[in-house]
## 1
Amino acid sequence: MKCRMCGFEFDETQLENRGCSSCGKHNCNSYHCPNCGFANSPELDQEFEFITKIKDKLRNRKSTN
């Protein structure tokens, strides 16, 4: 996983307790970056990927017209 805040790449499966050390939330479904502590949500990454695909399709349609 690549942190959306600092760009640090890490293996989320290797994080103990999802990297939560002091966020105070329990079962937040986020992976905290071991470099900066930012909470990265896997669900949000999927949404961004979907939006990027839609934008690419629209761009391709516009360039062919």
## 2
Amino acid sequence: MIDEIIKKFDGAFAENTIRAYRSDFIQFELWCRSKGKEPIPTDAETLAQYVDEMSLTLKSATIRRRIASLCSIFKLSRNPDPTNDPEVILALKRMHRRIGRAQEQAAPLTRDILEQMLATCDGSLIGQRNRVMLLLGYETMRRRSEICDFKFEDVTILPNKQTAIRLNFSKTDQYGEGKVIPISRELYDTILNWKESIAATDGYILRRINRHGQVGDHLSPSSISKLLKEIQQQAFQHIERELSGHSFRVGAALDLLNDGYGLEKIMLRGGWRTESTALRYLRTWSEI
């Protein structure tokens, strides 16, 4: 069922969005089958029950995302959409009163932590790749999938001699208007050295490397968090909070704030469109 629906979305949404839609619908479908119900079409009573049961084991952010995914699937497949029915809204309110709305924020990867992690990156291919990943993630403040999508041909020197990298697509730019992000000369040179080390002419900057030291195709977004945790363990004996893919954005935003940059500048650098979203990243950590 979901394959036929998702096929219509192909090319209209980012791959990560389609992947999330598929996963969230499959979870709903499995739940419906266990209750002897059909996932499409569905009704408000069924969705409200789904929310109530999810609130027993899942976080509120996950539940809200699943309902939002179902809303999009129902609407775009021209099926009845009961997600805004009062019964479902009340179920969401019950959920928030029971488990709250708070979303756990990623631990910030600030400049001081970055420097200590960079110190663990040796001259091996893995060490060079990890150095590029750390600097690229921190300086561009991009999401995991966007970091992995950067290509060597995106790196450039602007007419004013500023080194930069072009972001072709992002979560908030689904139609490829593009954005040029300034990067340091250190990162620019690090990328060129990495390119020479792996004898690349073009293609993705971040690559997989197997245990035999063989360089593969581009790194998957899911690998970013895993690599960060591995480097973090090498750099620190004691770890209170593990880093994740969003740690780049949180840490760099905090550093900008502490350096006196205004919220508008931070939003532009991080690609946030609303103040509420940017503040959600900053509020948890700025007072610690």
## 3
Amino acid sequence: MQAEDVLGRLANATGVYRGRGDGPESGPFLGRMAVASIVRGRAVTLDYEATNDHNGLQHVEHTVLVAGEAGRLELHVACLELPGVVRFTQTKPGEFTAYEGPLVARIILRLPQPGAISYAWWWSRDESEPREQSRAELRRTG
């Protein structure tokens, strides 16, 4: 997958994706992501949430995927766990990194096959390299 393909592929694969997730930080959960193309395909919104039977709604996120000024893809993420909107810049195809704020964080966004999204959050609470804390495997349902 070419780096620039992520935006185009998602712009052409809008809909609601649902599936399961797990991770050392999140534990097992159900994930839902609504993908919408905006501004004639120049940006994509990802509205993501994770729920489980024990905690109910445990994560809500609104993200915009767009090509930045330099042409590299960027995720602009708003969720309660972050201090405001945080920009994640693509460093490799499907890998977005942020060095802003107290946590070094990474989002891994993969499109393994048509109608499927793999969405993972990586971070570290200390100086070590980020590691995967939560990952959802989602399939388009509508």
## 4
Amino acid sequence: MSTSPRKIIHIDMDAFYASVEQRDDVSLRGKPVVVAWKGERSVVCAASYEARKFGIRSAMSAIRAERLCPDAVFVPPDFVRYKAASRQMHEIFHRYTDLIEPLSLDEAYLDVTAPKADLGSATAIATQIRAEIREEIGLTASAGVAPNKLLAKIASDWRKPDGLFVIRPHQVEAFLQPLPVSKIHGVGKVMQAKLTELGIATVADLRQRELVELEQRFGRFGRRLFECARGIDERTVEPNQPVQSISSEDTFSIDLPLSALHEAIQKLALRTWNATKKTNRIGRTVVLKLKTAQFQSITRSFTPQHVIRSEAEFTQIALALCERVQLPESTHYRLVGVGLSGFVERDEISLQGELFD
């Protein structure tokens, strides 16, 4: 660990989309709420904690979610309201630091090593931020406080929902060793299975392995495993992320109806997906852009709460967004675009083992 550890807070809103819906509609409070569009290809954007008790999770099909909980209340997502709540959240963050690295609409890292408002400790700042989010936005957030990003993210999940957990520098080793290796962000099911084959079940087991062995078996990610097992993470909080969005678009020679756009969407999705290979970061939000023959611009987007695993899945989501275009069937379009936005670092993706093994 560094001799002068940073003070990092990871803020993660609780069941964000579903919580916004329950906040704004009192009749939904206490009920299993599923945020999803209707349709055979629709997937769950978010589920309230009441819905999660039935096994409903984000990214599963809406049809399966309905089977798991026939009494669930399905609500179509409203990203205008979610983005508004996210902006309010960031306004609160900026009262304490400008070193803010957003990961998505509902979570971010904050470096409060040298805060604007010194409340005496990073723990006190996290407590105050959570209180202000509750009072001003009407939502709850969980927070993790630790010497680095790796540990802060683990900590924020420790007492969810509406919890605060602190890992102090002298507690790092004792905290990490009993944890299953799956708690290390980047260790997905595939990587976990490989580690299990080696007899590595806990972080303590992982600490027994030499760096040379891990690098030989897992390449660059082997070094990452070695460092994570020791609570080492030198990544800084990056407020200015280089890649925010990547997109491709085409303007047609003749205006086309929505039903005739599928081939174009597939080609654009492939082009965009290939372009993402030029960056080390991962896009989370799929964006469909349309412009009508009358030059009316329409944008539809979807942010699954899991990593988009392939070009085929990316394309499927882009095609599914067509279902959210509610203009008359007679409407013709002169332009279509497909993009990815909401980029995060690869190290932040919990399914990294599955993606890049």
